[in-house]
């Protein structure tokens, strides 16, 4: 069962229950007046937004990009290209929060941006390549 809490005070008093529900992939919400806010676990976002990274071997090294996102990276090795792509994703997430969130071509990337911002570098690298660090 999910956790649906009415107001900030109840959310503070039952924060553990709220976080446990989110971690289990159950609905976890806080309602305050006419606003309802959902709490979502990073792992759930990673499942909803699977990595679509494409990595291509070239004569001089590797290129990595994610179709549909304005991010790309190059490196002399596979790991270097992935590291550069990770940096490019972080920069895009900053730009998205700063000004791209209202742009028609970018506003639908909300969940992906949350997943990027909530991930450590190791988690983001694992998401990109699909293996544990």
Automatic annotation (TrEMBL):
InterPro entries: TTHA1013/TTHA0281-like (IPR035069)
Source domain of life: Bacteria
Protein name: Prevent-host-death protein
Originating organism: Microbispora triticiradicis
């Amino acid at each position: 069962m999910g956790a649906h809490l009415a107001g900030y005070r109840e959310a503070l008093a039952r924060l553990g229950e709220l976080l446990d529900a989110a971690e289990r992939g159950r609905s976890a919400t806080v309602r305050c007046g006419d606003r309802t806010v959902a709490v979502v676990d990073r792992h759930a976002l990673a499942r909803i937004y699977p990595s679509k990274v494409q990595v291509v071997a070239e004569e001089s090294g590797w290129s990595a990009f994610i179709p549909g996102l304005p991010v790309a990276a190059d490196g002399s090795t596979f790991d270097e290209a992935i590291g550069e792509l990770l940096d490019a994703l972080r920069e895009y997430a900053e730009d998205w929060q700063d000004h791209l969130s209202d742009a028609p071509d970018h506003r639908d990337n909300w969940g992906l941006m949350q997943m990027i911002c909530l991930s450590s570098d190791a988690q983001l690298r694992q998401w990109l390549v699909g293996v544990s660090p």
